[in-house]
Design a protein that fits this description.
- By secondary structure, the chain is mainly alpha-helical.
- The protein has one domain: SRF-like (3-Layer(aba) Sandwich), CATH 3.40.1810.10.
- It contains four helices and two strands; from the N terminus they run αββααα.
- A two-stranded antiparallel sheet has the order 1-2.
- The model has no long low-confidence stretch (mean pLDDT 86).
């Protein structure tokens, strides 16, 4: 039996929002770690919390990974011009 789906909408109560953020951030970082290990992939996740605090996970040196990302964007700017919405639409099709 699976978990029931929750309606995705902003959480109004500050404490609940903070707890949910921490749990989901940790889950996201765990998934990023697993993806890197299982698939030998270089993975980086950057999150700015509602408190304007920076949280990051990187399987390698983040500066080297960001430099690589910039080089790829220069070489093939089509990938970097897509918005997040366009990337999601492209991924779903």
């Amino acid at each position: 039996m699976g978990r029931r789906k929750i309606e995705i909408q902003p959480i109004q109560h500050d404490r609940n929002r903070s707890v949910t953020f921490l749990k989901r951030k940790n889950g996201l970082f765990k998934k990023a770690y697993e993806l890197g290990v299982l698939c030998s992939a270089d993975v980086a996740v950057i999150v700015f919390g509602h408190n304007h605090k920076l949280y990051e996970y990187c399987s390698t040196d983040i500066n080297a990974l960001l430099t690589r990302q910039r080089e790829v964007c220069r070489a093939c700017p089509v990938h970097c011009r897509l918005s997040l919405t366009q990337l999601i639409v492209q991924w779903r099709s």
